């Protein structure tokens, strides 16, 4: 599986998102290649359909995408059981990894 972490420069949730990905991959034991891409311009954001930082793509698809989310060079919030957070809940990322791995 290809996992890509998209972030804006100086994203305050960059490191937490990277750690979340590593933990979810270890927990689910999926085979994955993890890359990090910095989205530095509005043109890059528009080309990638980037709706905020951090964005996690699994095989090129954002499992947390909202169809109404605008393209933005800004921080992103995720709904979690604890409320809005700068990264998704670990359980939600684990579930998304399992679904993608299952095909």
TL;DR of this structure?
The protein is about 35% helix and about 20% strand.
Structure explained in plain terms:
This protein has helices at 14-28, 42-48, 90-102; strands spanning 2-7, 33-38, 55-58, 78-80, 83-85. The protein is of the alpha+beta class. It has a single domain (2-102), classed as Glutaredoxin, CATH 3.40.30. The protein has a three-stranded mixed sheet with strand order 2-1-3. A two-stranded antiparallel ribbon has the order 4-5. The longest helix has 15 residues, at 14-28.
Task: Name its key features.
single chain, 103 residues, alpha+beta, Glutaredoxin, three-stranded mixed beta sheet, 3 helices, globular
Largest sheet: 3 strands, mixed
**Into which percent range does the helicity of residues fall?**
25-40%
Please state roughly what percent of the residues sit in beta strands, choosing from under 5%, 5-15%, 15-25%, 25-35%, 35-45% or over 45%.
15-25%
End-to-end Cα distance, whole Å, is 10 Å
The appropriate CATH architecture is 3-Layer(aba) Sandwich
Radius of gyration: 13 Å
| Highest-level CATH class | Alpha Beta
| Topology as a string of helices (H) and strands (E) | EHEHEEEH
Low-confidence stretches: none
Structural class computed from helices and strand pairing:
alpha+beta
- Widest sheet, order of strands: 2-1-3
Number of distinct helices: 3
């Amino acid at each position: 599986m290809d996992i890509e972490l998209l972030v804006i420069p100086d994203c305050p949730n960059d490191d937490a998102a990277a750690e979340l990905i590593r933990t979810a991959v270890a927990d689910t034991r999926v085979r994955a290649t993890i890359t990090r891409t910095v989205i530095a311009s509005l043109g890059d954001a528009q080309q990638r359909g980037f709706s905020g930082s951090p964005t996690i793509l699994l095989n090129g698809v954002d499992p947390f995408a909202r169809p109404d989310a605008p393209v933005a060079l800004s921080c992103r919030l995720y709904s979690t059981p604890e409320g809005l957070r700068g990264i998704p809940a670990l359980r939600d990322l684990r579930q998304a990894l399992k679904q993608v791995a299952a095909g």
